Amino acid sequence: MFAIAALFAPLSAMCGGEGEAVRPKYVFLFIGDGMSVPQRMTANEFSIATGGSGLRMNSMEVVAMARSRSANYLVTDSAAAATAIACGEKTNNGSVGVDKSGGKLVSCAELAKMNGRKVGIITTVTITHATPAGFYAHRKTRGDVPNIARDLADSGFDLFAGGGIPLKGDKAKEAYDYISQKGYRIVKTADEFDSLRPGCGKVMARFSDDALANSIDAAEAEGQPTIGQMLKKAIELLDGEKGFFIMCEGGRIDWSCHGNDAATNLRDILALDDAVGVALDFERSHPGETLVVATGDHETGGMTMGFAGTGRDIHVERLGLQTMSVPSFNGAVARLFAERKGELAFEDVVPLMEKAFGVKFSGDPKKDPMRLSAQEEKDIRKAFDEDIAKYRKKVAETTDYKAPLKYGLGNALRTVVSHKAGIDWTSGSHTALPVMTTATGAGAKTLSGFYENSELGRRLRAFYE
């Protein structure tokens, strides 16, 4: 009954004591792309199993659930979901910042800017990707990257940080030139970003030409800050008399869900949670004027906590034995193949597989749960043979030993690791599962209930209307 009432709560519900509207000075909105209840709870259980105290985003006192459907599909994409959360209105899959007829919508971030707040947009994927674009762009198709980049510059937002604009050659130069002409200082490394000081003006920090590295592959992320480090700097640069609105997206969470890579997925959720911790620490030092919200845009992968092979036992701590993402592992195998000029035996890759995924090809299975069964090893050998056959064919056609391997071997290994941990997947795509929102601080109570994702957007907008 409460959930239904909350869904249709009048605007007066946005009011605090004595009928005055709650208008937090500082708003942090965290979005885990592809992150729903299964992803949050798997990461939460991993934290506890490895000596932590659970996700900080799960410790916030206000909890809500939201249906994630778009205007034209039960299963949404990130563009429509971001538009609903940012603008308070549902749109068609593929559209950002416009209604289902193509009319321009105004996001909560744009309203915040109109109200004198500084605005920051942070992501671990490209800055023109669907989720960040939902807060500043107005295009019928998320693929219109050149014009989304122009919308970024025209927004006047104070800070953008994350991956760069996925354009090549003259199109990339044109986009960055336009952003510079609009008064943005463009920085490319963590050191350059860290050297900035308040009053430096508008900033675009692009730490890669594409998405940033997965958290599990941090060793490969030279010059790239973590999402928590980006947020700390954003707070320093944006804090001021009227406050700020910051949207912070863990974008690579979704990508690892598409790849059903549980160990990589939970590392990116933990990284996002570290950023949530930065915001919660800020809220404690700015009580009564700070709102912290953590949500997802949709679920990806149909993740399940439970696998028939492990019965009622779940061993999420085993995911900690994986040290590389599947794409990073496949790249490492491709480099081995190039070094051997195409002559690579299965046994040559065994040490890398054991290091990357924590599996064992020898030992007593009764004493070591990561020891592969005969069937598991058979499946992995089959994937290797298929990958090598395809790779040799490609190299014979192109004489290019640096071409990346297909994902068969890495997928076979991550499947084994997921199953040994008691995790399984039902899809490689988005699902219609509802998403969980948690919140704390000024105005947090107005976000409780069970509602459409667009209702969350309307309630966020209400802080600035």
Task: List strands and helices in order, with pairings.
Elements: H1 2-7, E1 26-32, H2 37-49, E2 62-67, H3 78-87, H4 108-114, E3 118-126, H5 130-133, H6 145-155, E4 159-163, H7 169-181, E5 185-187, H8 190-194, E6 203-206, H9 227-238, E7 244-250, H10 252-258, H11 262-285, E8 290-296, E9 299-300, E10 304-305, H12 326-339, H13 346-357, H14 374-398, H15 408-421, E11 423-424, E12 430-431, E13 435-441, E14 449-452, H16 453-461
Parallel strand pairs: 1-7, 1-8, 2-14, 3-4, 3-7, 4-6, 5-6
Antiparallel strand pairs: 2-13, 8-13, 9-12, 10-11
Helix pairs in contact: 2-11, 3-16, 4-16, 6-7, 9-11, 10-11, 12-13, 12-15, 14-15
What does the model show?
- Mean pLDDT is 93; it is low at 1-19.
- The protein starts with a helix and ends with a helix.
- It has 2 domains: 2-303 and 427-461, Alkaline Phosphatase, subunit A (3-Layer(aba) Sandwich); 306-424.
- The chain has a 10-stranded mixed sheet, sandwiched between helices.
- It contains 16 helices and 14 strands.
- It has 465 residues and is an alpha/beta fold.
- The chain is globular.
Features:
2 domains, Alkaline Phosphatase, subunit A, globular, two-stranded antiparallel ribbon, about 475 residues, about 15% strand, 16 helices, alpha/beta
